[in-house]
Design a protein that fits this description.
This protein has 210 residues and is an alpha/beta fold. It has a single domain (5-209), classed as Rossmann fold. It has helices at 16-27, 35-44, 48-53, 60-63, 86-103, 113-116, 132-142, 148-170, 186-209, and strands spanning 5-10, 31-32, 106-109, 123-129, 182-185. The chain has a five-stranded parallel β-sheet, with helices on both faces. It is globular. The N and C termini lie close together (12 Å).
Length: 210
């Protein structure tokens, strides 16, 4: 079977993680989310907790630093003062993502994977989105102690964080449809419908790459 590599980016509360998991089960290939942090830690020798603290987020210092805006692929040596900087942590994570895409069929959730693998011709890049009200209802199902106001604040904060993270390392806009091959509304299609739509694209997509 031809290698399949799919990247999935998602709005907060859109069901992107569930869709990724279900897709992984249907195709029979692994998906990587926080597993990437463990792999990056093993390669770099940097504690996994530091990767977790910087996961899909940037700090104020990085936000105002134009010099470190876009990912270049450079990995700093262990004797560098910036070895555990968020920039270097991202570079190690990017290294793992590229190696996985080269070595096996897999699904990669978030972490600018669509951008990092943009030069490959065997990648299907997916973006999952949904109306705000649908996302609010979804989060309310598993955050029973949160008020409606807290849920909406969480959605806006997380979306803003992901957008800032993406822009910082790519110089591009996270929600720009041109960065993806397929954009799906999980409210209109449902989680299973999104999985089916992706599956319907894969045979055609694979033939195009042969």
């Amino acid at each position: 079977m031809r290698r399949i590599v799919i990247t999935i980016a998602r709005e907060t509360g859109s069901g992107g993680h569930n869709i990724t998991r279900k897709l992984s089960e249907r195709i029979g290939i692994p998906y990587y989310d926080r597993d990437l942090l463990r792999k990056a830690s093993e390669v770099s020798g940097i504690h996994e907790g530091l990767f977790g603290a910087a996961d899909e987020r940037i700090g104020f210092r990085e936000m105002i630093s134009a010099a470190e805006k876009v990912y270049t692929g450079e990995i700093l040596p262990p004797d560098s003062d910036d070895y555990i900087s968020t920039r270097n942590l991202f570079s190690f994570q990017a290294k793992i993502i590229k190696e996985l895409a080269e070595e096996e069929s897999c699904i990669i959730l978030g972490r600018c994977a669509n951008y990092l693998l943009r030069d490959r011709d065997d990648i299907l890049r997916v973006f999952i989105h949904a109306p705000l009200e649908a996302r609010r209802e979804r989060i309310a199902e598993y955050s029973l102690s949160w008020s409606e106001r807290e849920i909406l604040r969480h959605i806006r904060t997380e979306d803003k964080r992901r957008a800032a993270y993406y822009h910082y390392y790519t110089g591009e806009e996270w929600r720009d449809a041109s960065a993806y091959d397929l954009c799906l509304d999980s409210e209109r299609l449902g989680e299973d419908g999104c999985v089916e739509r992706i599956l319907s694209i894969l045979p055609f997509y694979s033939r195009e790459q042969e």
